[in-house]
Amino acid sequence: MNFGSAADAAIEQNLEQFVVVLAVSLTVATLSRILPWIRKIPYTLLLVIVGLGLAFVDVRLVNLSPQLILEIFLPPLLFEAAWNVRWQDLKANWFPVALFTIFGVLLSIAAIGLSLSRFTALTLPTALLVGASLSTTDPVSVVGLFRQLGASKKLSILMEGESLFNDGIAVVAFVLLVSLPFGSQLLSLPTILPLFLTFVGVGAGIGCLVGFGLSFLTQRVDLPLVEQSVTLVAAYGTYLITEELGGSGVIGVVTVGIILGNFGSRVGMNPRTRLLVSEFWEFLAFFVNSIVFLLIGDQVKLSNLMDSANIIGVCIGAVLVSRWFTIFGFSALSNLCVKAGISYPEQTVLWWGGLRGSVSIALALSVPTALAQRQEIINTVFGVVLFTLLVQGLTIQPLLSYFDLIGDQKLKQDYQGLLARQSALQRALDYLDNLEQDSQRRLAALERGKIEEKLAQIQGQIQMLADKNPQLQTLMREQLRDTLLDIEAEAYAEWIRAGRLTEDLRPVLEDVFEAED
Fold this sequence. Notes:
By secondary structure, the protein is mainly alpha-helical. It has 2 domains: 40-402, Na+/H+ antiporter like fold, CATH 1.20.1530; 409-516, no CATH class. Helix content is 80%, strand content 0%. The chain contains 22 helices and no strands. The chain has helices spanning 6-34, 36-39, 43-56, 66-84, 87-92, 94-119, 124-133, 140-149, 153-177, 189-218, 224-244, 249-267, 271-298, 302-307, 309-338, 344-352, 358-365, 374-402, 409-433, 438-468, 472-497, 509-516. Helix 10 (189-218) packs parallel to helix 12. The N and C termini lie far apart (65 Å). The mean pLDDT is 79.
């Protein structure tokens, strides 16, 4: 196809690149499900390995300007993570998450920055930028592995909660520190603290305004595609508006994601719509992560990494040491102050599972091209990310096995499968009961006995599993509570859409369940 201008040709080239990225990602995802020996490797790590292979044969997939990296990649990654975090779980572990997030990020920035400025040729402002880029954890692969293996909910929520909020703190710190190498800011507490509080305050305020506003809006409509589109606009719109007003777009997106995921989706969306929106964001996060993790491997130049081997080695040591002090020190404090109950094996997994990934890469690539040591920053961040993904990421499963932290995920999946079969067969019997024609009823009588016999077998298997494994009762109780909350929220939404209720009612079942606990 011939295009009339260079701009048209550039658009065509970019579209071709994104199609190739999607094709490669889908191929990797398919192979990871088909080939048994590949299943043990987390999908995102496979993408990095594939990207490295493409870089080795000099095939470059994506070429985005640094100015667009944060605006394109960060909003969907942050919103999807915030949407899926359950507020009740996060609230139950708020103390260690807050320590890991706030003081852990500051400790990491300081340790990495001071180590690099002391033992390498990087200046202190540049070293602090590297520290800010690598202070945000990205446990996509690890959390996915936790869920696959059935690790404890505490491990998952600590890892996800820390990652979600330290993204915000680290990115805010990065934005404040990026002007230091140009001499436009002074590194002093009276200068940094007001800017930091302004960034966070404006971001959180706009996030709350957009989140609660859209929650009340979706309660008055029942249009799944519109509500799905609203969440996409909310993610990107909140980021851009907050940045324009001088706040942190990252904090804004995290805030709006938590509100919509825990409040808006409850009071304003029926279960089918919420499932549709969740699946949409799951795909979007998959696509964006695919681009970023392929980018990690694809953009690596081994010669550049070799040139920066000394810096990368020092940085890896600083990352691991600062992470050790963060996890073991603040876990001990949490166990002492709030009885958090984070065991030594769990602390070890949290320490070793602190991978760096997409956000770190996005921050490094967004460093202004005018900065003299920009390439050193990119080389260092890429090298550390590759180490955490390929060394720590590939050894986290043996570590879970060693500490006997692998749960009963297969048992739960078997139980859920039996419940699904029971529900499906019961619906089939209900359909037979509603047949009207006599000829159909005679045929139904012949089939009913077979279905009832199979249903009785499945119910016996369900009862047997429940008797042998009392922990399954907790799972069923959580699912029952979620269903009851959905029914209550949908009832309020129906009254509002019908015009019989003009004010929003707070769900009462949440208070009932919390009181029971």
